[in-house]
Write a structure and sequence with these properties.
Layout (H helix, E strand, L loop, with lengths): L2 H5 L6 H6 L22 H14 L2 H13 L18 H11 L7 H16 L3 H14 L9 H9 L3 H13 L6 H13 L3 H12 L10 H13 L3 H14 L5 H13 L3 H11 L4 H17 L3 H13 L6 H12 L2
Helix pairs in contact: 3-4, 6-7, 8-9, 8-10, 10-11, 10-12, 12-13, 12-14, 14-15, 14-16, 15-16, 16-17
Length: about 325
């Protein structure tokens, strides 16, 4: 029987599987960005807001936030880029807290708040982000579960799990329930550390969420595969992938990378080749990622025979190779 088949087993309980341009002045901002001929782009609006914020013209920032949404140029991660961790940070934030309630009600205001919260989280200013959450709650500015996502994501990535759960309690005090994405942040953090016991607790909480039925999504399973791989449980990782296939869920490239990595590290070289070949032919880019990554890992471990087989397969399929792999292929496969 193929080694691959021995490792790919159907699983019904995934918890069990785991257990097994900034210098210009903006003093003369045009209150109507569309006064000149032609339509502004999203990037142009970001630049205008950057210049307005840098120069302290926050009334212009407010007008631009309104105008850009009206013209379908929505906020981006660069919208509040003028906000940094410099000495002028605090006054800028207070100015933004003053003008955001004056933006157009509805989507414009909500999205402005959420974009600013995401920016603060990127700067690791969680406490300031929570101040904005409080502003939204007091002003009744359509606070939602997704508003909390950047905060939970940042805290769990930094392994500040207790503080992240306190943020969840804040959500619930606003009558907001956790969604799959929220749980995935916690799950990924625990699985990255290989803490399958805590990951199982998160899954249990997810299943028991009051009044809601939530099904694991692609990122949930990616975290579970990661957790299995971090724990050295190759069989569990393969079974989780099998379950994803059965449910018709797309598999992230990273999920395959987790499995390939643990197989090679565990010395399952033949199995790793069988694994990538089992998925080959469905997605060219995935094939390039899987086969290329595996070949590189095999070469690094001096498993040249297996690496040659993988590179031959890449050549036959017309897949792109990096310069290092191409050089190895030409020297060790073609010439030999």
């Amino acid at each position: 029987m193929s080694l691959l088949r021995r490792f790919v087993k159907k699983a019904n309980d995934y918890r069990f599987l785991l257990q097994s341009n900034s210098g210009r002045s903006f003093s003369t901002v045009n209150p109507n960005p569309f006064a000149s001929p032609g339509r502004r782009t999203t990037a142009e609006f970001d630049n205008l807001i950057y210049e307005a914020g840098n120069s302290g013209d926050f009334e212009a920032v407010r007008r631009l936030l309104n105008t850009r949404v009206v013209n379908a140029c929505f906020n981006t991660s660069a919208t509040f880029k003028f906000l940094t961790n410099t000495d002028s940070y605090a006054p800028s934030l207070e100015d933004l807290r003053r003008i955001l309630p004056q933006t157009d009600a509805g989507y414009t205001r909500k999205h402005a708040y959420e974009t600013l919260i995401a920016r603060l989280c990127k700067l690791n200013r969680i406490d300031d982000a929570l101040i904005l959450i409080n502003d939204m709650a007091i002003g009744k500015f359509e606070l939602s579960t997704s508003t909390f996502h950047p905060i939970l994501n940042t805290l769990t990535k930094k392994n500040k799990i207790e503080k992240a759960w306190r943020v969840v309690e804040l959500m619930r005090s606003q009558e907001l329930s956790m969604d799959v994405t929220s749980y995935n942040y916690f799950l990924t953090s625990h699985c990255y550390d290989g803490d399958v016991a805590e990951a199982s607790k998160v899954l249990r909480k997810m299943e028991e969420e009051e009044g809601r039925v939530m099904s694991p999504d692609t990122r949930t399973y990616d975290a579970l595969v990661l957790g299995a791989c971090k724990s050295g449980k190759v069989e569990a990782a393969m079974a989780i992938l099998r379950r994803m296939d059965e449910q018709g869920l797309p598999v992230l490239y990273a999920t395959h990378a987790h499995v390939i990595g643990v197989m090679v590290e565990s010395g399952y070289y033949t199995l790793s080749v069988e694994f990538v070949m089992a998925y080959a032919g469905k997605d060219k880019r995935l094939d390039e990622e899987n086969l290329g990554s595996l070949a590189s890992k095999l070469i690094k471990r001096k498993r040249f025979n297996e690496a040659k087989l993988v590179l031959k397969e890449m050549s036959v399929r017309g897949l792109r190779m990096g310069d290092a792999l191409r050089g190895f292929y030409e020297t060790n496969v073609i010439k030999s």
